[in-house]
Specification:
Layout (H helix, E strand, L loop, with lengths): L10 H4 L3 H13 L9 E4 L7 H5 L5 E5 L2 H7 L7 E4 L11 E7 L8 H9 L2 E12 L5 H13 L16 H8 L4 E13 L7 H6 L5 H5 L3 H18 L8 E13 L1
Parallel strand pairs: 1-2, 1-4, 2-3, 4-5
Antiparallel strand pairs: 5-7, 6-7
Helix pairs in contact: 6-10
């Protein structure tokens, strides 16, 4: 996760849908080929959700995250040999690693054309870079946050809004193929989101992640207006059942690179 002191990640809000967020992390780990000797870095480890599964590989495990609040939660897992507060964009390990694993974090880091080859260079021969990122920017769940904010509060949104940056699959393939053996695929997860009495489930799911930097631009009154407007329109794209449950398709992009 990335975060700032002004608007850090909220572990409680993020964990509301912990099961839905953990499944892609485990699917990515299952796709990792046999590893060479060496340690593991969990980049953007967040609260450590994937830590227990990574720890089963029985290797030195380092968690890296920019968010102090998330790292505080990760410490409770008790599986990380060390936890480093750092921005992935400038992170470098002390020694080369067998696995650099990143679940739902690298889309917040810019310039993948430079970032991914640099991370691959931190691997031992036979090491693996394993990445999973949401590929959902143009879906209504995400696009409506951005479009409504720009329409309602153009002055607050005048400066270019940082948003998750994910290249086309073919661009990643072209970038990584010279570096080793690449495997690349997308999975669309149909998530059954339960109501919690505090709003549309898709709003509750996305406000903890994609909408976080958008909401950070606004004052309390503006946030309330944006959330209320999003609530009025989101049900047209993701209609709720009579019991309030919503079926929410969310696409994720997976990449493994064995060097």
């Amino acid at each position: 996760m990335s975060g700032t002191a002004e608007f850090d990640w909220d572990p409680g809000t993020y964990h509301r849908f912990r099961g839905h967020r953990l499944r892609p992390a485990l699917d990515l780990l299952r796709a990792v080929p046999p590893l060479s000797e060496g340690g593991i870095a969990d980049l953007g480890c967040g609260s450590g959700a994937a830590g227990p599964a990574l720890a089963q590989l029985n290797r030195p495990l380092t968690g890296v995250d920019k968010s102090e609040a998330m790292l505080a939660q990760a410490r409770h897992c008790g599986v990380y040999g060390r936890l480093d507060q750092a921005d992935i964009a400038g992170w470098a390990p002390d020694e080369k690693l067998a696995l650099i694993y990143s679940n739902a974090a690298l889309h917040w880091v810019p310039d993948h054309a430079a970032l991914l080859p640099r991370l691959a260079g931190y691997l031992v021969p036979g090491g693996v870079l394993a990445i999973q990122m949401p590929h959902q920017n143009n879906a209504p769940s995400h696009r409506l946050w951005r479009d409504l904010a720009e329409e309602l509060f153009p002055e607050a949104m005048a400066e270019r809004l940082p948003q998750p940056g994910v290249l086309l699959p073919a661009e990643y393939h072209r970038l990584l193929l010279p570096l080793g053996q690449v495997s690349l695929w997308e999975t669309e997860y149909y998530q059954d989101l339960a109501p919690d009495g505090e709003g549309h489930p898709v709003r509750r799911f996305t406000e903890a992640t994609y909408a976080r930097p958008i909401l950070a631009r606004l004052n309390d009154s503006q946030r309330a207006t944006l959330i209320a407007t999003y609530e009025r329109v989101i049900d047209k794209a993701y209609p709720a059942h009579d019991d309030g449950r919503v079926l929410f398709p969310l696409r994720r992009l997976f990449i493994t690179l064995a060097v």
